[in-house]
Amino acid sequence: MTKKVVTDLDVSGKKVLLRADFNVPMKDGAITNDNRIVQALPTIEYLIENNAKVILFSHLGKVKTEADKASLSLRPVATRLGELLNKEVKFVAETRGEELESAIDSMEKGDVLVFENTRFEDIDGKKESKNDPELGKYWASLGDLFVNDAFGTAHREHASNVGISSNLETAAGFLMDKEIKFIGGAVDEPARPFVAILGGAKVSDKIGVIENLLEKADKIIIGGGMAYTFLKAQGKEIGHSLLEEDKIDLAKDLMARAGDKLILPVDATIASSFSNEGLEGVVSIDDIPADMEALDIGPKTVELFAKELEGAKTVVWNGPMGVFELENFAKGTIGVCEAIAKLDDAITVIGGGDSAAAAMQLGYADDFTHISTGGGASLEYLEGKTLPGVASISDK
Ligand code: ADP
Ligand code: MG
């Protein structure tokens, strides 16, 4: 089903409620990384240019007690947004009531207002996080139209996304639209061949993703810590490498179902301890010593994976190939980034928090078609689940 996008709405002169993902990292009342605010700018700027009255809101952190409120106010976000837009941004330190309503009533076309952390409503009965119908209806009553640009919370059914949408015409913001197009599109209607690359720490975190992509992808490449449970299931010695004993049977079953669709590492970079200095070198996958652990795929595996990627038209990647946080064990992840960067006219998508961080930190952010902004939400999307925050957007 095609979803409405903000450009499908007639926003001029309208009070437009805009749910953004302003859940930024904070330390001592200061924002430590404003990337999420920057990512929200295209939709905000579009609405300003098109003469809407822009009413912004978001959750920030988890609000459990009155005391949490002091450190989790959206005020610093409103201030930073004002700097980025080079424009006055009014902040209302309330989530409902007369002050908020009259501030909205006095807005002019092109004005921007931010109201307080939606999770301030959680103190009294989790109204936001449990999608209290009265709260969604109330927030909806504050505007004429709703734009949902918070993909990061799309896997949650909250009052500030689903609750408002059940009362008001809703469109996706530009960020949300990109996620639907690239993550949703890659999984639902991939250009083929479609190659999935899975890695990261644990099989157990990714069972849903593996199961879904096994059906949809033409090839599944497995690296990272999770590969060793598969290799163990093949009867190999894996030393102290990551192992989930209780997932060995599942791994066997997945390998049997996947047949030659599934590609595993052929060599590994091993270590005597889980540290950068622990590096011991590269061994064939059949020769991992019993007292060592594999912290990265080896160069032959990078070569193999690069060959398997050749000609791919869709690539979905979740999970680093090794412990990329340690320089000596980042080569596998770098190698796969390089191989993906070389692909011609392929749609290449990264989902997952650490995978996105790896690509950015290693300097390959520009080599991908899309890097998802939503960790948990992108994983559930890759699992083939319906995300309530996406489903609740009005159909075109
Ligand atoms: P994502 O957040 O993208 O879904 P995960 O959280 O599943 O990814 O996995 C990321 C983590 O996996 C990283 O911190 C990385 O260090 C770890 N990892 C990757 N390969 C290995 C390995 N061979 N041994 C131990 N940990 C690994
Ligand atoms: Mg992670």
UniProtKB/TrEMBL annotation:
Keywords: ATP-binding, Cytoplasm, Glycolysis, Kinase, Nucleotide-binding, Transferase
Pfam families: PGK
Chain sites annotated for binding substrate: 21-23, 36, 59-62, 119, 156
Pathway: Carbohydrate degradation; glycolysis; pyruvate from D-glyceraldehyde 3-phosphate: step 2/5
GO CC, one annotated term: cytosol
Reactions catalysed, as given in the entry: (2R)-3-phosphoglycerate + ATP = (2R)-3-phospho-glyceroyl phosphate + ADP
The keyword Kinase appears for this protein: yes
GO molecular function per UniProt: ADP binding; ATP binding; phosphoglycerate kinase activity
UniProt-listed Enzyme Commission number(s): 2.7.2.3
Transmembrane segments: none
Gene3D superfamilies: Phosphoglycerate kinase, N-terminal domain (3.40.50.1260)
Residues binding (2R)-3-phosphoglycerate, per UniProt: 36, 119, 156
Binding residues for ATP: 206, 325, 352-355
Main location: cytoplasm
GO biological process: gluconeogenesis; glycolytic process
Subcellular location as annotated: Cytoplasm
HAMAP family: Phosphoglyc_kinase (MF_00145)
Family to which this protein belongs: Belongs to the phosphoglycerate kinase family.
Assembly behavior: Monomer.
Protein name: Phosphoglycerate kinase
Organism per entry: Jeotgalibaca dankookensis
